[in-house]
């Protein structure tokens, strides 16, 4: 789809007045004539497997497919936490969530933490963000290094003020608003009827964010910029505009089978979903991803029309993945592959050779590579292995042989290598995120899956493969001991399991029970009311 006419890309003067005034007037140090730019594109809940370039024949993601073909695709890239805020702030700081100090949904990132934006700003870049960042505080110029900080709260306010919805065609069924997650039936807040949001494409919030980013590109085409564009899609309720109704039929989908060991851990809220509702949820997710792709295409088209392609490092990724019926779940807060593997695409014509990287990589590996490629100062503390060799057409001497992820809000840790997936949980914490099971505090559990023979992760091999469990537990402990702020306080003589129990509880406080309603969901309620 072609981008909107130029007249559409006129965001209100308020953004210019409030945001651009914070940009530094003088660049520090000697600047090259054509310093490269950064365009960092991000989605919410976009699983890697719902992507045409990943082999999904049902997905309609032409713009992302084109980006993958023209750039470098990392086919085994993993987030470091399957929940929004910890994953995003880990990516922004280059530190694991437990070290960044953000392991729970509502925790704000400390002002003192170094970030990619701060380092780029120090290097003389104009820094900006438009869209969902999960900072859990109002977006203000300069926050976390962003000169222009139009986060979800700011964009919501402007969208409601400036975009008055056009009348809808008669007889079109749309989502019923407001919806209330965990109170409204799951079939509704997961859009099991595959209904569009009650707006046309031009009036959607995602389109407004894309237009705002395009306007920023026009205003800063002659300056070195680092621009984040972070869209809300395809987060539930999987919004898409009225024009896209009927694009995906529920009948085209079949929910993944549920394994014999899954029953106890399926959240109660998903137990009553019918087979038809599950198919509808999947269709809505695919429609929302299609809408995401369209808006990403608009931003990429604007970059091209301004002649900035060759001098811009383009990055696309997501905060985490999503389960669409896998193991009976429709969410991300778990250790199964669909919730953990995310897309990562990098393009820089003439500098990054197109291709596919099949080594394991993690979110914490990305930030340091971006800074190095753009000549910005490195982060003072990082926990990743920079992806720079891949971006320069080589392979690291010692590529990762495993990945490490944590979900401290549920006191879980995950490790996977070429063969094994390891899941460990203390089983002591009663979940307050809305995904409670019928056995909320089951006690310590260990699961081990042989991904070679059991890629769906159905058969627990932990009792039959104690050496593999011991190895994976050791890998998890090594990561914690090398990076956790409280590592020096680990009591001596603990067993490996007891040591993991020491590291896994969240240190950033327990959120109240209503933490289940995250920022996007609260905004949706506000917009509807």
In short, what is this structure?
The chain is 29% helix and 13% strand. It has helices at residues 13-19, 62-70, 84-93, 97-100, 116-122, 152-162, 186-189, 205-219, 275-305, 337-340, 366-374, 388-391, 466-483, 496-503, 519-528, and strands spanning 37-43, 72-74, 77-78, 126-131, 148-151, 225-230, 312-318, 344-347, 355-357, 361-362, 402-407, 412-417, 420-425, 445-450. Strands 5-4-6-1-7-8-2-9 form an 8-stranded mixed β-sheet, sandwiched between helices. The chain has a 4-stranded antiparallel β-sheet with strand order 11-12-13-14, covered by helices on one side.
Structural commentary:
The structure is a single chain. This protein is of the alpha/beta class. It folds into 2 domains: 6-21 and 36-401, Alkaline Phosphatase, subunit A; 404-503, Arylsulfatase, C-terminal domain. It has 15 helices and 14 strands. A hairpin with a 2-residue loop joins strand 12 (412-417) and strand 13.
Tell me what portion of residues adopts beta-strand conformation. 5-15%
Q: CATH homologous superfamily of the largest domain, by name?
A: Alkaline Phosphatase, subunit A
Q: Low-confidence parts lasting 5 or more residues at pLDDT below 50? A: 1-32, 510-529
User: Kindly state the mean pLDDT as a whole number?
Assistant: 91
Structure classification: alpha/beta
CA radius of gyration: 22 Å
Instruction: Tell me the name of the CATH class of the largest domain.
Output: Alpha Beta
CATH topology of the largest domain: Alkaline Phosphatase, subunit A
Shape: globular
Helix count equals 15
Largest sheet: 8 strands, mixed
Could you give the order of the helices and strands? HEHEEHHHEEHHHEHEHEEEHHEEEEHHH
- List the strand order in the largest sheet: 5-4-6-1-7-8-2-9
> What's the domain count?
2
Distance between the termini: 32 Å
What share of residues is helical? 25-40%
In the CATH hierarchy, the architecture of the largest domain is: 3-Layer(aba) Sandwich
Q: Could you tell me the number of beta strands?
A: 14
